[in-house]
Amino acid sequence: MISQYQESLLLPARTFQSGPMNTTYEDVLEHIDSGILLFDEEGVLTFVNKQMYGILGLNRHSLLGCTLIHLLSNIQLNRFKKKQVLRGYREMMKKGKPSYEFVDEYGRYWTVSLHCGEEMKGCYLFTFKEISDYKLIEQTAYQNDSLAMLGKLSASIAHEIRNPLTSIRGFIQLLHPHLHQLGKEEYAKIILAEIDRANDIIHEFLTSSKPSVPQVAMIPVSALLKEVVLLTESEALMKGCEINFYPLQEDMIISGDIKQMKQVVLNMIRNAMEAITEKIDDSIGRIELGASREGAEVRIFISDNGKGMDICTLDRLFSPFFTTKENGTGLGLSVSDRIIKNHGGCISVSSRINEGTRFVISLPLIQ
Predict the structure, then answer these.
(1) Which residues form the PAS domain (predicted)?
(2) What is the pLDDT of residue 15?
(3) Residue 229's CB: how many other CB atoms inside 10 A?
């Protein structure tokens, strides 16, 4: 059932005459950091502050006196915002929820709260507040908790699984001549390969929970990237990809652990290869690799024209155990993120579905 107020929200716009509102209170509402929409008991919009106009992307004073249906018919309101307004209306007005969270087209998090009842004298007050910083803190706390749990889990896994795997591997090697006589030599190869894969997963757990202290040395960025290209060129060709390396315009040197830095770039290039093999069309897969100076930093970029990622995947990309791969562990990017942070840098990523992904590694340069 739709209440009388909800029906009034959907009525056509009508002429609105501003009432005698306290100027001091109005000034306060104009300058708070939240967006405000105030509807009276008849569903007419009586007050909108400047932050709310900015959130909606509409001209100032173009909404007073309108109802919800008139707001949705505003040609200046884009399709994405109309969709969010309707979804918020359904969640709070029809389902009776006091608040509603959403992500806007720029990836920012917002919460909408509804205040009504006797204290509002029949009016309905909607407040919009950006909570992106809170979400970041929440995600960081969750990640730290996951890493703490991972540290305890990985130590147990290393002791309880590695030893029997080593024994099994030894016995399979002893049985290899007998399997060869029986014509079942491929069974031994499969078993050994699976044991090695299990050991690799255990190694990833240990690395992610307790990454080694960087062995600091001076690393020429150009030499680092050239070596990574040499290591991955043949694998890329086998997967139908080509790697385009853009030679650096100048010599740039960073300080860090060469093995860890190589691990990060290799991981991202291999991720790019997998994204290209999973894309829908048959276009040639391309991976671009290069670097440029930005002030006192170097920006190393790895981009591909693979299947891309949606915003939900991007939000959880560096979380431990999160993976979209069938046989993935969800630890590669979380380990890479920690390595770069330990080197005083950061990783940023942008992506679009069916268009590709671009990673940028920012690291301080040695002057």
Answers:
(1) 21-65
(2) 40
(3) 17
Can you tell me the mean pLDDT for 250-257? Answer: 88
CB atoms under 10 Å from CB of 69, counted, come to 13
Q: Which of 191, 209, 227 corresponds to the end of one domain?
A: 209
What separation in angstroms does the CA of 205 have from each of 96, 201, 331? Answer: 44, 6, 7
Most confident of 68-82, 173-187, 353-367: 353-367
Question: What does the pLDDT average to over 119-135?
Answer: 82
Per-residue confidence (pLDDT) for residue 152, from 0 to 100:
66
Pairwise CA distance, residues 364 & 351, whole Å? 24
> Does residue 247 sit in the same domain as residue 335?
yes
In angstroms, rounded to a whole number, what is the distance separating the alpha carbons of residues 205 and 40?
Answer: 57
Domain carrying residue 18 = 4-130
Residues with Cβ within 8 Å of residue 198, at least 6 apart in sequence: 161, 165
**Total tally of structural domains belonging to the chain:** 3
Residues 112 and 84 in one domain: yes
Single pTM value for the model:
0.49
pLDDT at 10: 46
Residue 307 shares a structural domain with residue 224: yes
